[in-house]
Amino acid sequence: MKGMNTPLLVPRASLQRLRTSVQLNAHLLALRSADLKSVRYASGKSIGDRRERDQPKKKKKARTVFKQYDLKNAEQFSLCDAMRYIQAFEVGRPPNSPKYDLAVRLRTIKNGPTVRNRLRLPHAVNTSLRICVICPPDSKHAEAAKKAGASLVGEETVFDAVKEGRIEFDRCICHQESAAKMNKAGLGKILGPRGLMPSAKFGTIVKDVGESVKGLVGGSEYRERNGVLRMAIGQLGFTPEEIQTNIKAFMSEVKKDIALLSDRINKEIHEVVLSSTNAPGFTLNGDFRSPDSPPTRDLSVP
Predict the structure, then answer these.
(1) Cα separation values, 35 from 28, 32, 48, 198, Å
(2) What secondary structure letter does DSSP report for 165?
(3) What is the pLDDT of residue 1?
(4) 228-235 and 268-276 as β-strands: parallel, antiparallel, unpaired?
(5) Alpha helices by DSSP H, 42-113
(6) Which of 34, 50, 124, 192 could join 197 in a cystine, given CB atoms 3.0 to 4.6 angstroms apart?
(7) Helical residues (DSSP H) of the chain, grouped into ranges
(8) So what's the pLDDT on residue 47?
(9) Ranges in the chain, pLDDT < 50
(10) 230 and 103 Cβ atoms separated by less than 8 Å
């Protein structure tokens, strides 16, 4: 029983080793808690970086409208000034080769109804449009289509040419009487992806092919893509007055198209830009000419 009250004797060397071990563990614990982010791997990445990397990244919210730039500080030009600068980029080129192009940027949402239409400008832009008409070849409709300027007219001849890959036309319209034959021929697989398949929805299956061809000849189609409408508005040889008349006709038609969609979607005109085949775009301010503009007769390319 006396041995139970005898104090335990620990060798001095063992006690020193125990103290050293306790101090080392305390140091490692402090290093792990305080300097954890300073410990780096061979790649240079810290433990904190690895944890941030392993966290799921937050997805950016998808933009629902097209991005538009603030025009308050943007330089804007009158029509005559824009034409003067554009003609400087087109020096030495024939006046009937380059064309003035008008781009109308809209404030609108993505994935909504788009503007699409066809317009015959007061001063037609020669685009050498090739028109195909599907109708009975020996009918009065075929005769009217040829007289109006169609380059290819018929039924079976058109079907065979398309199936063989000879698509030598830029627009295609179909008479109502030939619509069933056209669908039976299975042209949709070939013409559909090219945007050439006649459809009642887009007004290319018609009753009067002669009038439709007349509307296409000298006319131009415009279609909204990524919130922008583009259209050839004139040739380089057009006078400022002719360009102004065409722009007014185009903008008036665009406003009507927007009004027709007002019950489904809100669209507003944000910017109107005039450019040409080889020149950059110039934002228009709505004025015909400025005090520094040259005389309009000097802007008429001979």
Answers:
(1) 10, 6, 11, 72
(2) T
(3) 47
(4) unpaired
(5) 47-54, 79-89
(6) 192
(7) 12-34, 47-54, 79-89, 140-148, 156-163, 179-185, 188-191, 209-216, 240-260
(8) 53
(9) 1, 3, 34, 41, 43
(10) yes
